[in-house]
Every structure is written in C-alpha cells, then in structure tokens.
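Our example pasted here:


***
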Amino acid sequence: MSQRPIRPPAPELPAEKRGSLLPIMLAVILAMAVTTALLFLTLGMFAYVIAAGLILFLVAGFHYLVWGRWLERVILAQVEEEERVEREQSARLAKPSPAAQAGTAAPSANRPEN
C-alpha cells in the first residue's frame, strides 16, 4: 500500500491586506472617457453641467472646512468637559466618609433605643 502525501498547511494571509489602486484608477479613466464623450456629443453644452458640479463641490468643501471643523472642535471640547466632570463626581463618591475612615459608624436614625 502506498501512502498519500500529506498536504502542507495553507500559508497564513497577512492580518491587514493592502488594497489596490487599480479599481480607483479604472473608475477615474472610465469617468474621464464618459465625460469626454458627453462633451463631444452635446457640442460642449455638458461643460456647463461640469462647471455647476465643480461649483457645488467647492461650496460644500468650503462649508465643511469652515463650519464642520469648527463644530467638531466645539463638540469635542464639550464631551471632554462632561467626561472630566463625571470623573470628578465618581472620584468624590468613591472617597470614603471621615466617619468610616475613623472606624466608627454613624448612629442610625432608624435603630430603636432600648
């Protein structure tokens, strides 16, 4: 009887696989080809659509840079302040009372006297 060869273990793939730029480059080339074809087919009228899209993109980018970044910093500062206050409150609540530190318990108001 002949023994079958033992299959070697499969090689381990890296934990983080790097993406390729090929799909992005192909999408850019396709977009450029479609834009060029539309410019020729519409005798240049598609240029106005491209210009309007660029203007909209620039306005949106300007809005993000001015308003979005500022708002992000303001919200982050508020969250950090709230976390700091919560840490201080939890530290204050975790600190034992002076009576407990002395080893004597405070008399209970609910305990009946004999």
In short: Helices lie at 22-41, 46-94, 98-102. The chain has three helices and no strands. The longest helix spans residues 46-94.
